[in-house]
Amino acid sequence: MKALLFGLLLLLSAGCEMFAPGLIPEAGLRELRVVTWNIHHGAGLDDRVDVERIGKELKVLQPDVVLLQEVDVGCKRSDGIDIPKALAEQLGMHAAFAENIPFQGGSYGNAILSRWPIESQYNLHYRMLRDGEQRGLLTVRMKTPAGTLAIGCTHIDYREDDRERLQNDAELLQLVRERGLIAVGG
Questions:
Q1: Nearest to 136 by CA among 116, 161, 109, 162
Q2: Which residues is 34 bridged to in the sheet?
Q3: Is there a smaller number of Cβ atoms within 10 Å at the N or the C end of the chain?
Q4: CB of 181 closer than 8 Å to CB of 11
Q5: DSSP string, 127-178
Q6: 3 Cβ partners below 8 Å, 6+ apart?
Q7: Which candidate, 42, 74, 78, places its Cα nearest to that of 58?
Q8: pTM for the model
Q9: What's phi and psi for 102, nearest 5 deg?
Q10: How does pLDDT run across 15-25, given as a tens digit for each residue?
């Protein structure tokens, strides 16, 4: 079964003019190449943690921004690797990470890699209606040739009962408005 890069990227306004008025050719930024990937703590289909392999796949795609879910920092199962830092170094990018839960002596959450400097980051822990894995929405502001742009990375749970996900969606949309996000992926 082949399935590597699967995700959802939600562009939050037609042409992005409402949220990112600087995203125009005259400002030096004609397009924004965004990749979203649930990396399953760095383990591939062979269950081997191989961060370098992930970096090679990403390098081929030449992204401006990478939105990563299920990311480990210092966890036993991924050999204590700081995955966002390792990928950022391999790709020559900047990294932001936010913990959603402490796990195996480290942290587990979402990460954003950007080819431009990251000015700030914010992590929203969604309100959870049931016991289970804490989910979140990491947002960053990046200093691009078109000015400061904001983007988000999320990991929303799937369950048969939609109540929690719908609650999380409402929180996500509120943060989109408050922080002026041009896109959210996850």
A1: 109
A2: 65
A3: N
A4: no
A5: PPSSSS---EEEEEEEEETTEEEEEEEE-----SS-HHHHHHHHHHHHHHHH
A6: 45
A7: 42
A8: 0.87
A9: -75, 140
A10: 343 344 444 44
28: confidence class by pLDDT, cuts 50, 70, 90? low
Tokens 């289909």 belong to 45
Instruction: Tell me which amino acid residue 185 is.
Output: G
Helix (H) or strand (E) holding 94: strand 94-103
- Give CA–CA dist 144/29, Å, rounded: 8
pLDDT tier, 31 (very low <50, low <70, confident <90, very high otherwise): confident
Question: Tokens 């125009």 label which residue?
Answer: 24
| CB 179 within 8 Å of CB 150 | yes
Long-range contacts of 27-32 (CB under 8 A, 24+ apart): 27/145, 27/146, 27/147, 28/145, 28/146, 29/144, 29/145, 29/146, 32/64, 32/65, 32/149, 32/182, 32/183
CA angle 79, 116, 15 (to 5 degrees): 115
Q: How far is CA 36 from CA 70, 79, 149, 165, in A?
A: 11, 23, 17, 19
CA 70 to chain centre: 9
The one-letter amino acid code at 46 reads D
- The DSSP code for 14 is G
In residues, how long is the chain?
A: 186
Instruction: Name the DSSP class of 16.
Output: G
Q: How far apart are CA 176 and CA 156, in angstroms?
A: 15
> Which pair of tokens denotes residue 186?
């996850």
Neighbours of 134 (CB within 10 A): 15
